[in-house]
Amino acid sequence: MIQIDALSKRYGGFTAVDNVTFTAEPGRVTGFLGPNGAGKSTTMRILVGLTDPTTGSAHLLGRHFSQLPNPGREVGVLLDASAQHGGRTGREILTLAARTMGLPKSSVAETLDRVSLTEEEAGRRVRNYSLGMRQRLGIATALIGDPEVLILDEPANGLDPAGIRWMRDLLRGFADDGGTVLLSSHLLHEIEVIADDIVVIGNGRIVAQGTKQELLASGEAYARAGDPAELGRALQRAGHNAELTTEGAVRTAADLATVGQIAFDAGLVLTELRAADGSGLEEMFLQLTAETQRDHLDSPEGLDSSKGKAA
Ligand SMILES: Nc1ncnc2c1ncn2[C@@H]1O[C@H](COP(=O)(O)OP(=O)(O)OP(=O)(O)O)[C@@H](O)[C@H]1O
Q: Can you give the residue ranges of the ABC transporter domain (predicted)?
């Protein structure tokens, strides 16, 4: 469990993190989503004791990071995969981590296997690693102590689609075993495929938080069916609006589960069902990104913070 309470960080007159409060629960993957410069890394750095907050608090498993007796055994951290020592091999880096945490030597080979780094790759110096290999090594360093909590800053950076799927499965398995995962990204899609819960931050402030379903259901649904006109009529009979798009799909304000149920009851086969483009979370995130790019110092005015459990 991760608890962040009323956390703020000011650098001179600039507020990088502004009264941020959220929790990341065991058994769930929590996505921390925000455009570049939103305050994600600063929040994570405070969480692991690398930066002091101006006000507020951050706790892991009920304690401040500095109070954890053997932190690597309780919290796995990956903040910057490119910060690893370029002159060391992957195996040396993991061996050092294992020694620091008092782990058996066998944990190194086991963890290399878990992140799919081969013997040959583990023997190479890190300066010769691709970004994707560095991310795998960083994730290995986070996992080696068999912690209860994982904190990963942009872990999908540099991973190819197969790598992203691998990471998603790994984090899903970790959470299903009762672990707590907090991972950040500036890419909505990445968070959408991995996270159970989403916290959206912009200009240092939380602008929305909730389960993925809550946040994605906050806009319109987009559905394709063998007979879109019949799907439209079925939705209307059930009291929902339905608009046929030029590409032969249906847009409606009904939520995804309702559309699925109505299609099922009408005996219609859906070939696609998702949140409509330009609605809900995506629209909010695009506005947030545009606002952030215009002016880093202003608050994200004009955002509809009524989406999900908005703060
Ligand atoms: N040590 C510092 N001194 C001054 N400003 C800082 C410092 N560290 C971060 N900032 C500023 O705080 C803001 C938040 O930065 P942060 O790195 O937390 O954002 P982020 O959401 O992680 O972005 P990215 O996705 O680009 O990594 C940025 O405007 C950044 O320039």
A: 2-228
